[in-house]
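Researcher: Let's do a round of design. I'm pasting the structure tokens now; please hold your answer until I've finished.
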């Protein structure tokens, strides 16, 4: 999404200085970054002065991009009229538990020290959760009590619990910290109704929580020569490609895809399972798949080639660990549904992803953690191309209706104006030391 392509959502009541704190931002192309980037561009298109404080590009590879390595001081950039300040922080090669919290704590502390135009509104994107504490501190000090809004892309406490990253005691501490931080915000955006419902069950006031869906951030796919695209990607003729695109991390539980490919080998099935992307589990999975013929890993692709790869696949795969239920609604679905291909979802039937796939009529849902079920689901879709076409058309209609950037732009514009005009008083006023510090006992 380019800044030049955006039209104002509505004439702003006044020009605001908006400060956004978010760890992930372009040039990262997957996960949360496209939406934080797009939010900044949307608000700038409305005439606001937008300053983004973000980290060094590192996701999903979990290593700092070459152009940013070795930075020891904040780095200042511009993207159109948006001011960007990048602060250095550690990037763990194994982003689990305490190491990830440590990275986010360093980012939050350094982000809180950045100065620019005095903000009228401070926005934080969670995760990283501790950025919310930094946003509250900046708003209370530099912003002289200006309002704070939080965009919740994932439920951090649920993610820790479902991933088993810190054990029961640590997960409980993170969930309590998350509630304290969000309870102190003047407004909270949940990017899916499942997340909003969970926040309300946790006790956040109804009037402070709203839902604004993520949008399809890829431009419309032009007509593609599918056969040529598949040749360029190295996908053999006569095999149906089941493509998982995006982060190759722990949450996705992609060992099941390796085992599904192994089953396809053993049965001589015309299926190929492809992982497109990068992540901290990629090297391990490649090693685990050594000798598996019907398994391929493709490096991350630029936007145009990425869209082409989605269109060239026979089936788009969403794959999650069985434990994943509430933590998030995968951002890849916004691209999947717009790609015009059927979706096969191996996910908990109660998850946000399953709810979204059912609502879109995008394709079948199979039991996660069951490679045989994954193989049978893929075979069924490939064997019935008419049903696959119906799923694809339904998903595309749903994307047009639910994932429009214009609707998100208008709602974010109104939300930020309401925050600035309302200046409601947060009910939770813990000191910054409470919200930026975890004790060793809490992360053990």
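Researcher: That's everything. Go ahead.
Model: Designed sequence:
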């Amino acid at each position: 999404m380019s800044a030049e392509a955006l039209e104002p959502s509505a004439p702003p009541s006044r020009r605001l200085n908006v400060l956004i704190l978010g760890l992930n931002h372009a040039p990262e192309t997957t996960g949360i970054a496209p939406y934080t980037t797009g939010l900044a561009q949307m608000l700038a298109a409305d005439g606001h002065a937008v300053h983004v404080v973000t980290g060094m590009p590192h996701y999903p590879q979990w290593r700092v991009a070459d152009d940013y390595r070795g930075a020891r001081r904040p780095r200042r950039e511009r993207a159109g009229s948006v001011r960007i300040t990048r602060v250095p922080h550690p990037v763990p090669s194994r982003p689990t538990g305490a190491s990830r919290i440590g990275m986010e704590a360093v980012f939050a502390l350094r982000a809180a020290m950045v100065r620019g135009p005095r903000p009228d509104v401070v926005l934080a994107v969670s995760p990283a959760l501790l950025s919310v504490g930094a946003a509250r501190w900046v708003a209370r000090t530099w912003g002289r009590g200006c309002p704070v809004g939080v965009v919740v892309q994932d439920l951090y406490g649920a993610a820790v619990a479902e991933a088993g990253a810190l054990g029961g005691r640590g997960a409980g501490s993170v969930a309590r910290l998350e509630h304290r931080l969000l309870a102190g915000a003047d407004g909270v955006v949940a990017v899916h109704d499942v997340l909003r419902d969970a926040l309300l069950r946790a006790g956040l006031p109804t009037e402070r929580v709203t839902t604004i869906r993520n949008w399809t951030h890829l431009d419309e796919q032009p007509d593609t020569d599918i056969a040529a695209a598949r040749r360029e990607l190295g996908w053999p003729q006569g095999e149906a490609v089941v493509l998982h695109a995006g982060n190759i991390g722990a949450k996705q539980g992609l060992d099941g895809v390796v085992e599904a490919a192994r089953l396809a080998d053993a049965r001589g099935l015309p299926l190929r399972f492809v992982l497109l992307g990068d992540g901290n589990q990629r090297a391990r999975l490649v090693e685990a798949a050594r000798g598996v013929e019907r398994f391929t890993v493709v490096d991350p692709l630029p936007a145009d080639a990425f869209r082409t790869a989605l269109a060239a696949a026979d089936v788009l795969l969403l794959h999650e660990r069985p434990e994943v239920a509430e933590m998030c609604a995968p951002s890849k679905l916004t691209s999947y549904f717009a790609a015009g291909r059927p979706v096969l979802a191996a996910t908990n039937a109660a998850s946000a992803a399953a709810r979204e796939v059912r609502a879109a009529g995008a394709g079948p849902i199979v039991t996660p953690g069951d490679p045989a079920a994954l193989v049978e689901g893929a075979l069924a879709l490939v064997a019935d191309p008419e049903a696959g076409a119906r799923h694809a058309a339904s998903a595309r209609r749903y994307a047009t209706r639910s994932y429009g950037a214009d609707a998100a732009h208008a709602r974010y514009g109104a939300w930020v104006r309401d925050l600035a005009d309302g200046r409601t008083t947060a009910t939770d006023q813990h000191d910054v030391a409470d919200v930026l510090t975890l004790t060793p006992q809490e992360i053990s």
